[in-house]
Amino acid sequence: xxxxxxxxxxxxxxxxxxxxxxxxxxxxxxxxxxxxxxxxxxxxxxxxxxxxxxxxxxxxxxxxxxxxxxxxxxxxxxxxxxxxxxxxxxxxxxxxxxxx
Length: 100
Description:
This protein is of the alpha+beta class. It has two helices and four strands, in the order H-E-E-H-E-E.
């Protein structure tokens, strides 16, 4: 099993604890914990953070499409911008670009 630099520093720390005839190597546990934290930090800063910034940059480039509907000023229903009149109240559509 490969050891990290932190593990090599703590290699001499071999404290043992015995509970119910079971021996726990506290130094090995600390070594494994430090190795895990170092690997997790490397993965986070060199994989997760760059991917998040890349995805955010791509989301910013996507333009929002122009709206195709609007709200009638009289009855407050949704009306297509191409319509000349509201389908509910039959008032002229001030939002429409089409002219009659």
